[in-house]
Structures are given as structure tokens and as C-alpha cells.
Amino acid sequence: MSSPPSSSAPASVDPQVALALAALVGGAIAMGVSPVFVRFAEVGPFASAFWRVALSLPLLAVWARLELRDGKPAAPWNRATVIAGAVFAGDLFFWHLGILNTTIANATFLATMAPLWVMLGSGALIREPVTRSMVIGLGLCLLGAGALVGSSLGFAPERLAGDAYGFLTSIFFGGYFLAMRFARRGEGASTPGLLLYRSTIITAIVLFFVALALDDGFLPNSWKGVAALVAIAFFSQTAGQGLLTFALGHLSAGFSALVIFLEAIAAAAAGWLLLGEALSGLQALGGLVILAGIFVARPRSRMRARTSASQTGSLGTPQASGD
């Protein structure tokens, strides 16, 4: 007499969760290579942030159109999508200010505090529980990030303003995760492209006026600068943010934020491969610790991946889950 399959069969991996994990890893890598292209953009820092989102809009519009090709009506604009676009503009604004006013190592490390704010806000704002394994994973990822930039990390009085900008970057990026995760659980559950397209419109509008007011160089001087801006728009916004937005329909905001630590690993690897920047043993160890932290925090079951998808939060009232 055979035993019931439910009692002895090993737990299978939910294909949707596996696909979302792959998308999240791909998105982190795509966003991680963007600093390489920023160096060749030939425009001011805020202009490069504007062109990153503006040049991605045509491709995102095609994606959004394909999602509605069967005559499905587009959901109305919602508050979470607008908030996501606005806080992402703040993220890019303070990120570039941080780079200008402190070391890249400091700006990068302080920006990696975003998962901390995501986990703190998950319960309070979107009613999504944070597990003990996620907290342990966060601790390991922060240690790894510190080791990854440790050789260049340092604090000095003259860089306090830049360090503050890096800290604010983490808060805004954390807010973006929470808002987009909330939007993906609601009316936009089946239309990640439309959500990203709409939020990117908001981001582009804000950064357009910022770039006009604060940057001297708004247009690149050569085809190389144009190519760099197109690459930033494709890799960082269309691919990177697109894959992240898809993943946030199937994975919790807290875990998704941890996987973005891979962006730091990708940036270090791109600098080594493409720009000849040396990697130390401590940096390699930091990358391994980040991977360990993500592994510890990984979703253990489909139920955890669906965490409180039908609950309400303070950003609005979500409908059906996107899982």
C-alpha cells in the first residue's frame, strides 16, 4: 500500500516563484552595470537620470500595449503608482547628489540600507510580515556590502552632506519597493508593464525640471554619449526595473530588496571586467557573504511568496494577488 504523496513527496518549487527569482537576479545585474555607462554619458548627473527614464518610455509603452492587446481595459491610475514614480525620482536625485559629494563607496554602502527600510515598512505600510530568516539575511547582506566597499569606505566631516544624500537615497529606494509591491498586488497585478510605464512617466516629469534647473550639460556631445544614454535606459530602466516590477508581483518586498544587493556585486564585477578596476580578496568575500544572506532569506514555500497578498495597507486597497 503506497503512502500518501502529500506526506513524503519533497516540496516542489513554485514555477512562478522560480521565474520571479530569476527575473529579480537579472534585474539586479542589469541595474548594476549602469555606472559603467554613466561615465560615458557626456551630460550632467541629473540629465543622465532624466534620459535614463525618458528614453525607456517608448519600449515600456510597447510592453504596456502588449499587455492590453486582447482588449482588456487598462486599470485607472492609482495612488501607489504615482507614489512609486515620485519616490523613484527622489532616489535617482539623491543618488547622484551623493556621488557628487562623497565617495562612490560611501554612497553605495549607504544606499544599500534600502532593505532595512523596506522590512520596517512592510508590516506598517503594506501589512506584509518579515520572517526571521529575512532579518538574518539582511544582516549578512549588510556585512557583505560593507566588505565589498570596505577598502574605500570612510567618513570625513567634509563629506557629511554627501553621506546624508546616500542615506536619503536608501529611504527613497525603499519607498519605491513598498509602493511598487503594493501596486503589483492590486489592480495592476496582471499588468506590470503598464505600472512601470506610468510610474516612469511621473519620474521623467520630475527629473526633467530638476535637470533643467541644476545641470549645465543636458545633451551629449557625440554619438558615444548618445549610445551610453541609450544603454542606461535599456539596461537600468527597461530591463532592470522591468524585471524588478515583474518579480514584485510574486515575491515579498522584503526579500526582493535583499536580492538587489546583487547590484553591488554586478557593479564591482563590471568595473573589474570593463574598466580594469582591481578586486581585492575582501571584496570577493563580501560578495560571497551577500550571496549567503540571500540564500538564507530565500522563500521557503509558495505560501510565503504570496505573503498577505489580499490584505489592505495604508497606500490604498489592493484587489487580487498577482501570484
UniProtKB/TrEMBL annotation:
SUPFAM superfamilies, alphabetized: Multidrug resistance efflux transporter EmrE (SSF103481)
Tell me the protein's name. Answer: DMT family transporter
Enumerate the InterPro entries for this protein: EamA_dom, EmrE-like
Domain EamA: from-to ranges: 21-146, 161-296
Q: Signal peptide span per the entry?
A: none
Keyword Membrane on entry? yes
Sorted alphabetically, the keyword list is: Membrane, Transmembrane, Transmembrane helix
Q: Note the superkingdom of the native organism.
A: Bacteria
Q: Name one Pfam family in it.
A: EamA
State the organism named in the record.
Stappia albiluteola
**TM region(s), chain numbering:** 17-37, 80-98, 104-126, 133-153, 165-183, 195-214, 226-248, 255-275, 281-297
List cellular component terms (GO). Answer: membrane
